[in-house]
Amino acid sequence: MLNKFCGQAFKTVNAALGFISLTAIAIGAVSTFSGLGLRLIARGGISIIPEERTESLTNLGMGLCMCGGVGFAGAVVAAAGAASLLDADDKVQEEESQTSDNRVVFRTSDSVQQNNIDSLYLYQVMRIEGHRALNGRLIVGRIEDELTRKVVIYDTLNHHVDSLMEIFDTDCDEDKLVGKAFSSTLPNPWDAIRDFIDYHRPQLGKKDWLGNCIEKCTGCRNFHGENSVVCGIFPYGWQEDCTCPDWQPVQNKQRICFSYEREEVIERLNQDIEPNKAVIQKNDDGTLTLWDNHTLRRFHFTWAGILLDDSDRLLELGTHARLLSYCQYFAVRAVVEFDYSTKIDEFVKLLKGIATIEIEDEGINIRTNYCPRLNINITRTYRFRFDGIPLYPYESIVPVELKHNYNLVTFIEWLKANKSKIRR
């Protein structure tokens, strides 16, 4: 950044020097030709000014032309050098930005050696657009991190599309398959997708008469699935929300899943946090969403319980806290609702000359004339409930500094600390 600033400053000074040099050349040329013309006229017998002054004018013009020429040549050379330095700096910055970005690299499964057989992989259905051989086709990809890049080792789905649409209940719409995920211990995408379908094969074709309860029977050795009978223990399927107490894995087909991939694990966690207005939702794309229904905030995790980089986070739990820590937090959280409308007069004094605050039917509104996102003066309204919780915690106008700590109190403190930027 410093090199670029210095380069720009040097470029400006160099441009000014070039302009001065060109001006000197122009004035020198006029002076030289004027002096030579007067000398020729004097030789013809007409003397306008003394010969000494004519000679001085000519010498001055030639000197200006010479100096201007040298200065302009130097400016051209210096400008070329500055341009090369700026280009080099831009290339360095571009390379750094490319290294820091999470780019996606696609590799076919037969081009990668699969040596590790003890890992658990996340697979996802994708569609490749613009590729000559795969344009518009569905693929299954194994997602992993290689340094700072995301690598997708993939294989085509081919005839497995129909089975996947039934497993994921996409109403025979291929587009709805894109983004669906599953786990597997098999490192090859082709083997993983076949194993995943084989695991669900006993239930395929039976959803029409079994309904949603068939999901709870997946992988169970007791599943019968003939003549509209689920199994001998529960002919109509397990109707409760919890896991069937008689569910047993098929021999040699028990699947290893991520820590929070199975629905029964999510249900057990929800039993602890739902009384405190929080709930976990499992997503088909390999992620989990923890909804805080009290503060209207949401937190995103992988099926392994790792907090995603672009997720909201609780600062008091630390940067690298996992799902279990969040569940423990919400299990014991005490929801204290304080009515901040009783302190409105105090807030008006604190925000005098900075912003306006008023009470409306739905809560407390704060209006400012500063937009931190666009860095321009524009009227913005920040809306809070009476207990200080923002009605829209993820609005684009929320100050970046308050991204993970935004409520009425923290916003008022931010306004006071940044009052030089705020205009009423």
Helices, by number, come to 9
Query: Can you give the mean pLDDT?
Result: 79
Largest sheet geometry: 5 strands, mixed
Strand content: 15-25%
What's the number of structural domains? 4
Number of strands: 11
Strand order in space, largest sheet: 1-4-3-2-5
Secondary-structure content class: alpha+beta
Query: Would you identify the regions where 5 or more consecutive residues have pLDDT less than 50?
Result: 90-101
Helix content: 25-40%
Structure characterization notes:
The protein is α+β, with helices and mostly antiparallel strands. It folds into four domains: 99 residues; 101 residues, no CATH class; 63 residues, no CATH class; 78 residues, no CATH class. Helix content is 36%, strand content 16%. It has nine helices and eleven strands. The strands form three sheets. The chain has a five-stranded mixed sheet, covered by helices on one side. A hairpin with a 2-residue loop joins β9 and β10. α1 runs antiparallel to α2 and α6 packs parallel to α7. It is elongated, with a radius of gyration of 36 Å. The two termini are 34 Å apart. About 3% of the residues have low confidence.
Describe how the helices and strands are arranged.
Blueprint: H1 2-43, H2 51-100, E1 104-108, E2 121-127, E3 138-146, E4 149-156, H3 161-167, E5 181-184, H4 189-200, H5 207-210, H6 263-273, E6 278-282, E7 287-292, E8 297-302, H7 323-332, H8 344-350, E9 356-360, E10 363-368, E11 380-384, H9 408-417
Parallel strand pairs: 1-4
Antiparallel strand pairs: 2-3, 2-5, 3-4, 6-7, 7-8, 9-10, 10-11
